[in-house]
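Worked example 2:
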Amino acid sequence: MDTRLLDSLVAVIEKGSLTEAAQHLNLTPTAIAQRIQALEKDIGARLIQRAGRTVRPTPAGSELAERSRVILQDIRALRSIVTEGVPVGELRLGAIATAMTGLLPALLTRCNAEFPGIDVHVTPGTSRDLYPRVLEGDLDAAFIVQPDFALPKSCAWRTLRVEPMIVIAPATAPQDEPHHLLSTQPFIRYDRSNWGGRLADIYLRRAGIQPRERFELDSLDAIAVMVDQGLGVSLVPDWAPPWPTGLSLRKHELPDTDLRRSLGVVWLRTSPRSRHVAAFLG
């Protein structure tokens, strides 16, 4: 069986339409439709059904697509294993928001120039969501915040950036000591379900500060914009630029703290694409 037929079926089901699947695979909708028809003839069952402008899988189509994902993943791994010399093939990365803007662009530019045969796919997410996907083999590597627990020996880790925790305040706020700002000004909290947000919570507890909490957000960019608008102050990592443009903020260093947010890459040592990860990191 031609694996391109399976690839087309998976794309159609994931995208929900022949047109979007065609764009994803750089084909025409007619070519995608012909592939699906050929696969249905080969299997002897109807695999998709139309619902207006969208398509949805039949029970047989759902089952075949699920098994096809495993088959296609194994084939990509085999190609990666037997390839000699310059790495080629797919590399599936995950990245948190600040890595997407502050770290990945430069790495992607260099990788594209030095290893044009590596086809990089990037999935956004939070550290707590991306890390288990690396363990499950769904992602080859992820740019995340270093967790506050020991990684298993099956995982490799490389730190790329260490960020101190800082207090950010509107430029119009009093030029005050950071603890006083945290104690007296409305507080915009970095979401405690994020690994970086836990560091802020740990610091506040250690310092015995009970802030006047106004919001709790999981987006650092959104926090910065709200602080700029005078809605409060916040305790965040000094993340890699770019920050939102046009902001008028003041950064305050914290006194006597060893709390840092470490941003890096995690991957499985036994992954068939570990060589791709190493090439990407350069």
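Residues 92 and 121 are 5 Å apart (CA to CA). DSSP finds eleven helices and eleven strands in the chain.
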